[in-house]
Amino acid sequence: MFEEKKRRHSELVKLLSKYSKQYYIFDTPTISDAEYDKLYNELLTIEAEYPQLITKNSPSQKVGAKTTINFKKVTHQDKMLSLENAYNEQDISDFINRVKKLCNKEQIDFMLEPKLDGLSASIIYKNGILVQASTRGDGNIGEDITQNILTINNVPKKIPINNELEIRGEVIMLKKDFELLNKLREKNGEKIFANPRNAAAGSLRQLDASITASRKLSFFAYAILGEDLLYQEEVLKKLENYGFTVSKEVKLCHSQKEALQFYKKLESLRSDLEYDIDGVVYKTNDFSLQKLMGNATKYPRHSIAYKFPAQQAETTILNITLQVGRTGNITPVAELKPVNIGGVIVSRATLHNKDEIEKKDIRIGDRIIIQRAGDVIPQVLYPLLNRRSKDSTPFIFPKNCPCCGSELFKEQKEVAIKCINSNCPAQLVEKLKHFVSRQAFNIEGLGEQNIKFLFDKGIIKSFVDIFYLEEKNEIFKLENEEGWGKQSVYNLFASINKARNITLDRFIYSLGIPQFGKTTSRLTAKFFGNYHRFLNSIKNNSLSELINVNGIGESMIKDIQNFFEIKNNINTLINLAGDENKTGQVYVTDIENNQYGNNLANLTIVFTGILSNISREQAKILAENNGAKVSSSISKKTSFVIAGDNAGQKLQKAQNLGIKIISEEEFLKLIERT
Ligand code: IVH
User: Is the CB of 121 under 6 A from ligand 1?
Assistant: First the structure.
């Protein structure tokens, strides 16, 4: 047993040292963080059982990786420690109980801060002037990056103090700057960075500081050394006063329950934040207690990092298939060996388009890192090139539609590849799915499976067939089909009949005209006011009048004109909703009869911060249903901003631009929700 553990221990030491070097020194991770943590925890478990295996070289005894040779070395006055990790509430309970015991106290306040995913840095000021900056290195000795830090805009070069002071914090790249940088690198044919952390690392540790200057990095401060302060809360305020950027999303918590709520809030907000975070740091707020507890070898005892469940995982691409969208767009999809990411089993991930596959050189059989963030469809981040088999070959994008076999088509300058056969069965099924979806006709009981079944049987071939289903059921006798009981057929007819009344905006949206999503359909409906005016405009060939609508541009008008140039599409419209000669199957009501108010018509609004009564997604839908356009960034066009708790830089920007800011409560009042 011992021999086996010894062997595994030495294997883990080798593996972890290699991965850690790839991560810290070459900025090119070859396994996911979660996989690394798993191996690392396995190492700790073995060492707990057999302490005689612990050597100076074990990754458990080292902070980060040793420095590279090129930079001048800097010895830290105070060791730059790492943080212990917690993965669940039990770990947090254990941590809090330990702190309480060490401090001999019943209750402890913790300052909670986002765990920024970047590189820690130390900056020293003498007589208020920035004189030296360094990386963490191995915790004792770091690299001199003074010239590089000086190029970061939000690092104050002077601060209003006289004594010597050390500021510690994280160097990161904001998500938006990361995307811009990668776009530029792609254009220049350079290797793109896997994530903002790698981009920050690759940009900071440049011997030529002018390269750092050309990349937009940011510094977020979280600690001051050399000043007698009493609380972490005070530190954050002081840092702001000195002109440093600090995270806005922080909270002083008085109980484990309150802390958990904040952790959950940050987790739900994670994808909306401007920067990547991978957890929440819990810090004992009172410095006298911090001192009392002291440090373990690698970690301070007063703080812990509660990591978010992994969002990335490593798996294998079993196949690459093509998905046909309702407008014929082809999306390549990676079929994966199923893998658990933060409690969700993922077996497919989008590859976006042909260019993406080529750019990242993704191949069938590759080991890859996938990412699942919030409600976003899982995506393939990058292949692990050193794990690729020798006989692997690049993926050849098929020339024909996987459904109807017709030749695929790519318009110049466009990235999308299309199947242009409008009778392609896959497209028709997707169109039907869209037609009955929640925001369109909202027909319950017609999910993907049922639509496919009815389509394959030839029972529903077009939109209007749905409304003849009940009448024709004498022949179809759906209730006798497998999986369809009498009750479910009855319920389906009831929901189809309920859907026969539809507002004009939903009606237009349901047709699946390219670029006519919810907002554009609504603007169009509002412009025409009623179905007959809309129909006349189509019949009179005067849809170009839509150019008068703020928010509808030429390319959208082209799309709707092209759509109705196809005779079949006008016929569909008339079969559905009728014209002066024919009664339709559905009744399109005027937009004014909409169940929602219209108080936000023509306004562009932006949400920021954490909302407490409703989710961000709900708020967005409510706002849109009331006529607003919801944008994710502030500009001069923004009508007003709804600021929740801990609103960050967007709020600042709105204030600078003099844009009106309202609270969540005021917003709910506006849309008559309270
Ligand atoms: S406090 C004892 N606060 O996480 C070191 N660290 O895994 C405690 N980090 O080296 C530093 N966000 O690079 C602190 N709000 C935050 C942080 C943070 C990110 C990093 C830092 C540290 C690493 C430990």
Answer: no
Q: Which sequence positions are flagged as catalytic? A: 115
Q: Is the CB of 281 under 6 A from ligand 1?
A: yes
Report which protein residue has its CA nearest ligand 1's atom 16. 115
Q: Please work out whether the CB of residue 137 comes within 6 Å of at least one atom of ligand 1.
A: no
pLDDT band at 613 (very low <50, low <70, confident <90, very high): confident
Q: Are 511 and 538 in contact (CB under 8 A)?
A: no
DSSP 3-state of 332: strand
Mutate which of 116, 219, 273, 284 for ligand 1 pocket (most atoms within 8 A of beta carbon):
116
Nearest by Cα to 330 from 231, 240, 230, 398? 398
| pLDDT tier for residue 375 given thresholds of 50, 70 and 90 | low
CA angle 163/164/166 to nearest 5° reads: 135
Length of the chain: 674
Q: Parallel, antiparallel, or unpaired: how do β-strands 277-284 and 73-75 relate?
A: unpaired
Backbone phi, psi, residue 423, to 5°: -100, 10
Q: How far is CA 73 from the centre of its chain?
A: 38
Q: How many CB atoms lie within 10 A of CB 504?
A: 26
- The string of pLDDT tens digits covering residues 7-58 is 999 999 999 888 877 776 666 677 777 788 888 889 888 988 888 888 877 8
Single-letter amino acid, residue 261 = Q
Q: Nearest Cα to 405, choosing from 379, 386, 435, 426?
A: 426
Backbone angles phi, psi at 373, to 5 degrees: -120, 120
- Amino acid identity, position 182: N
How many angstroms separate the CA atoms of 440 and 437, rounded? 5
* 271 class by beta-carbon count within 10 Å (0-12 exposed, 13-18 middle, 19+ buried): middle
| 334-364 b/e (C-beta count within 10 Å ≥ 16 → b) | bebeebebeeeebeebbbbbbeebeebebbe
In Å, what is the CA distance from 90 to each residue of 94, 298, 303, 337?
A: 6, 21, 15, 31
265 pocket-lining for ligand 1 (C-beta < 6 Å): no
- The phi and psi torsions of 538 (rounded to 5 degrees) equal -70, -45
Residue pLDDT, tens place only, 110-127? 999 999 999 999 999 999
Which of 83, 95, 307 has most ligand 1 atoms within 8 Å of its beta carbon, as the pocket-test mutant?
A: 83
Least confident of 9-23, 459-473, 573-587: 9-23
Regarding the beta carbon of 535 and ligand 1, being less than 6 Å apart is answered no
Q: Is the pLDDT of residue 196 over 50?
A: yes
Pocket test for ligand 1, best of 166, 222, 282, 283 (most atoms within 8 A of CB): 222
CA gap 134, 402 in Å, rounded: 55
CA of 82 relative to ligand 1 center, distance in Å: 7
Q: How many Cβ atoms are within 10 Å of 641's Cβ, its own excluded?
A: 23
Calculate how far, in angstroms, residue 276's C-alpha sits from the geometric centre of ligand 1.
Answer: 13
Q: Are 600 and 671 in contact (CB under 8 A)?
A: yes
How far is Cα 569 from Cα 607, in angstroms, rounded to an integer?
38
Tell me which residue of 217, 228, 129 sits closest to 172, measured CA to CA: 217
Distance, C-alpha 384 to centroid of its chain: 22
Work out which ligand 1 atom sits closest to the CA atom of 85: 7
Residue that has been written with the tokens 């005894």 in this structure: 61
Name the pairing type of β-strands 660-663 and 640-643.
parallel
* Atom of ligand 1 at shortest range from CA of 168: 11
**Res 66 pLDDT > 60:** no
Measure 609 CA to ligand 1 centroid, in angstroms: 23
The DSSP output letter for 407 is B
* Cα distance between residue 288 and residue 331, in whole Å: 58
